[in-house]
Specification:
The protein is mainly alpha-helical. About 45% of the residues lie in helices and about 0% in strands.
């Protein structure tokens, strides 16, 4: 039984290095500082903060917006 050759898929090829470096630079120079500033300001954009006195984490939505979702196109 033949085994698949995965050596080319795991190894970072030299032609892919500039794109990889660009993504790494954008992450560390843009995304990380923005995340640190938002954390420092106390922003919880995803609403993940634990609320010990909360009965539920359900977010009540306006039912009139649901009708707009039926006819999207």
């Amino acid at each position: 039984m033949a085994r698949p050759n995965l050596a080319g898929t795991v190894r970072l090829r030299l032609k892919d290095a500039p794109a990889f470096l660009l993504v790494v630079l954008v992450f560390f120079l843009v995304v990380s500082p923005v995340a640190l500033v938002l954390r420092w300001l106390g922003r919880d954009t995803l609403g993940r903060r634990f609320l010990p006195g909360a009965d539920s984490y359900w977010i009540a939505r306006d039912p009139s917006r649901a009708s707009k979702l039926r006819d999207q196109f």
